[in-house]
Amino acid sequence: MIVVMEAGASPEVIEAVEARIRAAGLGVHVSRGVERTLVGAIGDERVLEPENFESMPGVERAMHIVKPYKLVSREWHPGRTVVDVGGAAIGGDVVQVIAGPCSVETDEQMAAAADAVARGGARMMRGGAFKPRTSPYEFQGKGIEGLRMLKRAAARHRLPVVTELMDVRTLDAFLAEGVDVIQIGTRNMQNFDLLRAVGRVDVPVVLKRGMSATISEWLMAAEYVAAGGNHRIVMCERGIRTHETAYRNVLDVTAIPFVKRESHLPVIVDPSHAGGKAWMVGALACAAVAAGADGLLIEVHPCPREAWCDADQALAPDEFASLMVRLAAVAGATGRFLAPAPDDRSLAPA
Amino acid sequence: MIVVMEAGASPEVIEAVEARIRAAGLGVHVSRGVERTLVGAIGDERVLEPENFESMPGVERAMHIVKPYKLVSREWHPGRTVVDVGGAAIGGDVVQVIAGPCSVETDEQMAAAADAVARGGARMMRGGAFKPRTSPYEFQGKGIEGLRMLKRAAARHRLPVVTELMDVRTLDAFLAEGVDVIQIGTRNMQNFDLLRAVGRVDVPVVLKRGMSATISEWLMAAEYVAAGGNHRIVMCERGIRTHETAYRNVLDVTAIPFVKRESHLPVIVDPSHAGGKAWMVGALACAAVAAGADGLLIEVHPCPREAWCDADQALAPDEFASLMVRLAAVAGATGRFLAPAPDDRSLAPA
Amino acid sequence: MIVVMEAGASPEVIEAVEARIRAAGLGVHVSRGVERTLVGAIGDERVLEPENFESMPGVERAMHIVKPYKLVSREWHPGRTVVDVGGAAIGGDVVQVIAGPCSVETDEQMAAAADAVARGGARMMRGGAFKPRTSPYEFQGKGIEGLRMLKRAAARHRLPVVTELMDVRTLDAFLAEGVDVIQIGTRNMQNFDLLRAVGRVDVPVVLKRGMSATISEWLMAAEYVAAGGNHRIVMCERGIRTHETAYRNVLDVTAIPFVKRESHLPVIVDPSHAGGKAWMVGALACAAVAAGADGLLIEVHPCPREAWCDADQALAPDEFASLMVRLAAVAGATGRFLAPAPDDRSLAPA
Amino acid sequence: MIVVMEAGASPEVIEAVEARIRAAGLGVHVSRGVERTLVGAIGDERVLEPENFESMPGVERAMHIVKPYKLVSREWHPGRTVVDVGGAAIGGDVVQVIAGPCSVETDEQMAAAADAVARGGARMMRGGAFKPRTSPYEFQGKGIEGLRMLKRAAARHRLPVVTELMDVRTLDAFLAEGVDVIQIGTRNMQNFDLLRAVGRVDVPVVLKRGMSATISEWLMAAEYVAAGGNHRIVMCERGIRTHETAYRNVLDVTAIPFVKRESHLPVIVDPSHAGGKAWMVGALACAAVAAGADGLLIEVHPCPREAWCDADQALAPDEFASLMVRLAAVAGATGRFLAPAPDDRSLAPA
């Protein structure tokens, strides 16, 4: 940590700062410049909080020099993490596409969605059973029964499932139903009790970025999960809120290379929620892969305009299938490949 | 709802839109302009979702005409709500100041804080027992024991207490300990399960605005609470996240008159978290009252620079006392007055 | 400047950084911590650019310690500047209200507007002759003839005038017509050639903050004016662009105390453009004064709904007059007073 | 335009709205719903301004239904525009890379830069002779002499040049020196007098998006240029300002497909300014091409760390050359190709 003293700070106030650093068990280094004196802390500065120094007389500001995250940082763990999900990898040389409808509606819809996902060549399935909705009067998801419908549909094609956990009280049910990957949604990125809870289980976690979270806050949210012992974390960029209202969110592609440089965790992207319109999904998905994303979370619905939620952003089965072909080409142009679909007898001609 | 058709939309696609509106039980009104045809829905449009129309062929966009909130809206409840907290009012002609430390630390600190709050003339006390912290390695609050310390300290001056609930599993303990007002923090504004839970209890709720929430989303979060039956809701503006980094957040004073026009609920302001520095609190608190705020949430600590959290934003007791004098003048200039402190024998000379 | 080296930076790369600092004529101070080595520059670091260091091998980041502005900073000029405009002061103990229509339309409209301004008790007049409009098809202002209409109307009540300069080529006309205060609009805050031009004349400048400018960029824009020799600068906060769409902009009241702490220049506020609606102007104007603003720029039109531009944000004469009474009370509550209107015979009863 | 009346608006106020629309020569259509009455204008609504209606009694809000831009919109000009620059196309099936240093420094630097640009395979050159700098104390560019240095260096490889115009008074010099493409910078996107001036000349314009401009404002800025008669406009996305501070700006890739859907103009991207760091340029450039960008503006400097401006974002010649190979692959994956370099004898072995 560096403490910048105000111009003309007296020796007494500088000594008070030094004393406070020493009291925390760290060493002190003072540098007297022409306009400012700086007091540096030598040791693990994470034990110091800049606010405690900024409230002292004569202090202009105090700042950490090292990053606040450790377990998820690449500096402390230089290799790259590959998260294994029932034999399918997220991270490494593959681009893993996770597809499915926004919300679980009926067994028929889910069966048709699973067929579309598998036929398109994806090998993981998404679907929401608990839905965070802005309005209390909108459809809130099918709940536990939805989890079962999702599992049943996905099982036909042996697809692991990804679904969102909103309430810590339903975590046991998620485990009991065999959810393969737990998604933490954008509105819960700083629901710290929920993060702590999924940090204690042995199921991979997809952690969506908060709508206006900084990269640092997002990595600190992952640090909460990792600190509990669960290191199988996948970061998911899904667009940030800005001044622009022409589309729902602004997909922050810069976050992809940035997080991969700061952290060893894989990064996937949700182009469907980012743009909010089906016609944008292709361009955003290709951009994400070209920028280095390890995977995508794409909304596919057997009949988008009948969807019970986010009807305007889901792809129809044929749109999804042709997007997969484009994605394979872009993945190839960046030296990677789409994860091969499992050997799936259900798709074979009779 | 209005559906704007694309230029040159065919009669068939227009009819399909009409049919969909009628299928939901609403009437239809078509307006043919020079460049666009508009299809309007007649009836309670809240049952329609624009996304379902925007995914139809020939539709350019669809939009609601009425606001999504009802229970919290002033259109449906024209009077103003005054929330009673143990005899102290939030709303109406008083400006209610709620003061206390960021976090509950020790019985001694809390006793001194309660003295400062009461001597300054405030009649409600705040203090955090469960703390949402960006880092898992920082102090996370004293928990249930903290609630008891807060209640003990406040009881000496008969101050009702306000404290933050983060986890739905601790709600029962909040009720058992007699928490007078439950605060929902900025990071949990869209933790819908938590909102539903506090919607079912009979304790007033202070609902902080999310860091990048729109006014509409904030009022819809209040609608979640109200929909459960709890109408004792106080909205709290605490600064929004913008591009500016010179201060922690930008206090959105425009939200004060705007929410009071849209909703019947009282609006208070947290100038301490908004600016993030003690020296800004006075100016922001005065601005909030001048803009019509019904109250303030101010951090006061017996010795700010020793505070365990947010040390740089708490006021010292003497700073708080002199701010209360300025606030009384500003409240007076806007035709209101600071809530009178209760007859408090503990402050009387021996 | 401080250069933070990467973990494990070799002695050679550290020496290269030191050499580069020394080559610029500054001294060097190296601090070796547990996780990072820091290299500090001793001397006037403004001659160094962090980017040149951040592109060197082994450097994690480089940052300035001192602020980039000098002439406008309070550190270098501790007193407060009061800008004199034909005998009326901006800065000091007065709150100066500048009022008038968005755009100059006709001699009749301007005469009625000047009457409203003077009767309300303001002693400076605003009015736009050159209008920055988002669309090329909207009314662009009356031009030079508009300047003359503004001067004529204001002269009847001896009001100095404030009007916006958009194009450097019309500066001579502004001087020839006797414009009393030149306004630089939000879209031109970083039109550096325009800033340089008004820096060379002897007329006060009102410098509006850019819609998404940081405080630092805004003060640097003022530094451009001051560097040319013109130190009669008034900073004007007018709302910033954020994610919120319920109102046009978010008035950043925190900027008022912040700029007054960083700079010796006076700060005024434009509540009319900030909110964009007439009904919000009162609350925002009171908030600005309570937060310490040195003045206000308020839109007043003899008949708002007939205004040629921004019809929904102008106050009618009677609304303006009653707002002035409220403002006087708020100014009083903060220990200041509204600037007294000049002895104005034109307002006297016959 | 649609005018939404308040709940319970009286027949008189509705008639007043109707009368105002008719007075402007448009037809009226009234739709009475359950909660609201809507009044629609039939005809070219662009002549109406919503503000004039929003200030009328009984009106809740008024909004345009059609887009404000015409000349640049795809609705009015369904084909795609290809801008020809001395035989090189921007738009169509090519991806055109424009490369060169941030600022023109010396003849030697420019010659080396031009070699790097041409050897990398790009066929247009950029370089700044007039530099918009946040600080008045930083290097402001070489001016007219810089234009000449740029033209001399580019001529060796027959590369057309792109350079920024900041001041309308230097436009004649740009024409006299034979600048091939005039760039309007992000800070001048709403410098309307400058836009009008370049709208009257016969030189292609690259129009950078303002740092916090909406897509609509950006297209309206292009409309200013087009309204003057110059339709050779290239839109350039360069990152927007958000809350994120880990990188300079957030490249808004969604703007690429969105603007290409709304407008017939080509869209290029500046990945160098967006991220602000050389190591990010590759990922952002690939993402932009994958999302459909028609070209890129890339900073290349013979020796980045010695650059006089933005030293940390320029690529070295070898980095640029290898990026061009990756870009060719990504362009191919999206069915396009990099513009072929001209037959360039200066690059041939002796």
Helix and strand composition category of chain A: alpha/beta
- Which H/E pattern describes the elements of chain A? EHEEHEEEEHEHEHEHEHEHEHHEHE
At CATH level 3, the topology of the largest domain in chain A is: TIM Barrel
Separate helix tally of chain A: 11
Approximately what portion of the residues of chain A adopt beta-strand conformation? 15-25%
Give the largest interface. Answer: A-B, 47 and 47 residues
Spatially, the strands of the biggest sheet of chain A line up as: 7-8-9-10-11-12-13-14
Which percent range fits the helix content of chain A? 25-40%
Largest sheet of chain A: 8 strands, parallel, barrel
Structural account:
The structure is a homotetramer of 350-residue chains. Chain A has helices at residues 11-23, 50-54, 107-120, 144-155, 171-177, 192-198, 215-227, 255-262, 271-275, 278-290, 317-333; strands at 2-5, 27-32, 37-42, 59-63, 83-85, 88-90, 94-100, 124-126, 161-164, 181-184, 205-208, 233-237, 267-269, 295-299, 337-338. Chain A is of the alpha/beta class and 350 residues long. Chain A has two domains: 2-63, 2-Layer Sandwich (Alpha-Beta Plaits); 83-347, Alpha-Beta Barrel (TIM Barrel). In chain A, strand 2 (27-32) and strand 3 (37-42) form a beta hairpin. Chains in contact: A-B, A-C, A-D, B-C, B-D, C-D. Chains A and B meet through helix 2, helix 6 and helix 7 of A and helix 2, helix 6 and helix 7 of B.
